[in-house]
């Protein structure tokens, strides 16, 4: 294994990086995305940023800003659509989410009061799930588009070139504060499809719920298509403070054999970790990476050689010191090795950096 840094600012107030993704543009060129230059896990100082590597991940460019609103811009999915085309995704929380998680030390400061007043006019227009498209590898970007679902790593390219976005429905009336426990009720995991490269989207299906699971238990899915045409999906599971037969921060597995219109009843994997990112390796192996947020903490992978029927679990890619880590995503390199990006504390640091591990099956 080889470990490295995409971006690290240990002495900066804006030194927190989170929720990354990665894509391969050609034999040598990679592009990684994250929510960068934050001050904390929840804060209004952040940007959707890209980092380029022209030597398969050995060195990385300074950040390139794609999006920077007045709200808490989170996650960053990056998808290569072929040629020079890129698609980037993110979502932004409304003001009341920031207020709910506000550091008490900020509550009565002039900064906080001024920020709220400045951000209020943008709250509705800049809150939601979004994407942007580029035809020149990210040099320029098209208009910001709202989309009805959200997932950390965005959509996936299907065998026919269309896009499938398996995501959490992003309801415009979501509430926070005292109604926090109700904020995800009614928000489904559903599949959207685009036949025009991400310009327009149509809902094609939704996940069916297993017994003892409600919609607010399911979050942050990811899906890929296998050579057989089957679409394989993994979903983050949370207990949301309720009694369930299943442990929180784990994953359920599902599949669709009709292009995302219907899905199998999700099956509990029992794996300690989430959210998932799936990659089909050229060897035929399916690689699922995830963050483990209980001891022993760390970035993990599990591998299937039978299209998801069985898994070899819990390969440790990088050990952690606490649970503020994860959201890994992988890409295969030209020699068949795998590069996995994630947010994680560099040894000795207080804030999370954007890091990578290069490894082999």
What this model shows, in words?
This protein is mostly beta strands and 361 residues long. It has a single domain (2-359), classed as Neuraminidase, CATH 2.120.10.10. It is 6% helix and 45% strand. Strands 10, 11, 12, 13 and 14 form a five-stranded antiparallel β-sheet that branches. Strands 1-25-24-23 form a four-stranded antiparallel β-sheet, with no helix packed on it. The longest helix has 10 residues, at 110-119. It is globular. Mean pLDDT is 92; it is low at 180-185.
Tell me how many strands there are: 25
Order of helices and strands: EEEEEEEHHHEEEEEEEEEEEEEEEEEE
CATH topology: Neuraminidase
Tell me the distance between the termini.
10 Å
Biggest sheet record: 5 strands, antiparallel
What CATH first level would be assigned? Mainly Beta
- Category by helix and strand content: mainly beta
Please tell me what the overall shape is: globular
Estimated radius of gyration? 19 Å
The CATH architecture can be given as 6 Propeller
Mean pLDDT level: 92
Uncertain segments are 180-185
Number of domains: 1
Helix fraction?
A: under 10%
């Amino acid at each position: 294994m080889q470990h490295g840094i995409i971006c690290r600012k240990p002495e900066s107030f804006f030194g927190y990086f989170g929720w990354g993704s990665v894509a391969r543009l050609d034999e040598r060129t990679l592009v990684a995305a994250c929510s960068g230059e934050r001050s904390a896990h929840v804060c209004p100082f952040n940007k959707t940023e890209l980092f380029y590597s022209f030597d398969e991940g050995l060195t990385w460019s300074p950040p390139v800003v794609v999006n920077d609103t007045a709200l808490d811009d989170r996650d960053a999915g990056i998808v290569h659509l072929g040629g020079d085309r890129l698609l980037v995704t993110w979502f932004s929380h409304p003001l009341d989410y920031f207020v709910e998680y506000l550091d008490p030390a900020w509550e009565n400061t002039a900064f906080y009061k001024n920020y709220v007043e400045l951000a209020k006019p943008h709250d509705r227009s800049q809150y939601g799930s979004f994407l942007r498209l580029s035809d020149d590898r990210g040099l320029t970007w098209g208009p910001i588009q709202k989309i009805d679902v959200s997932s950390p790593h965005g959509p996936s390219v299907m065998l026919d070139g269309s896009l499938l976005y398996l995501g959490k429905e992003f309801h415009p009336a979501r509430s926070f504060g005292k109604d926090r426990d109700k904020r995800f009720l009614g928000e489904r995991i559903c599949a959207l499809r685009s036949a025009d490269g991400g310009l327009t989207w149509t809902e094609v299906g939704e996940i069916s719920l297993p017994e003892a699971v409600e919609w607010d238990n399911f979050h942050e899915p990811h899906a890929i298509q296998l050579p057989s045409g089957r679409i394989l999906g993994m979903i983050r599971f949370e207990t949301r403070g309720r009694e369930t037969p299943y442990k929180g921060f784990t994953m359920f597995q599902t599949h669709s054999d009709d292009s995302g219109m219907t899905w199998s009843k999700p099956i509990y994997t029992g794996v300690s970790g989430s959210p998932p990112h799936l990659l089909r390796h050229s060897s035929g192996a399916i690689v699922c990476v995830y963050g483990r947020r209980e001891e022993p903490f760390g970035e993990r992978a599990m591998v299937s050689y039978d299209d998801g029927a069985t898994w070899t679990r819990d390969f440790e890619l990088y050990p952690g010191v606490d649970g503020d880590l994860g959201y890994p995503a992988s890409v295969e390199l030209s020699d068949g090795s795998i590069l996995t990006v994630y947010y994680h504390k560099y040894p000795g640091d207080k804030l999370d950096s954007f890091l990578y591990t290069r490894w082999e099956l």
